[in-house]
Amino acid sequence: MHNIVSFFAQAAAPAENAPQGGGSSMLIFIVLMFAAMYFLMIAPQRKRQKAHQKMISELKTGDRVLTIGGMLGTIANVKEKTFIIRLGDNNKVEFVKSAIQSKAESPDDMPSEQK
Q1: Is 68 part of any domain?
Q2: Residue range 58-95, pLDDT digits in tens
Q3: 3-class SS of residue 89
């Protein structure tokens, strides 16, 4: 019986000498990783999204645009949630505002048929 007690006493001794505070350093590491992810991934994406929303809100009739599907055209009418875009010879197609990728700044951005 005495041997069993001394065995458990020896087995428990290293646990008492274990270093304390290992959890706080892990918490700091996780917080730093989240901060790095925010500044490297989330913040730039939000900045691009705000710039795109600003560009969409500033579009008006007569602006040349490129859709996310690759269609180039001229805005014929602006509605609350959509644009009516003229493609080619008076063909008009209605697109939701989120389907606009960018504004075409120069005539070089348009295909040769529409120049």
Answers
A1: yes
A2: 999 999 999 999 999 999 999 999 999 999 888 999 99
A3: coil
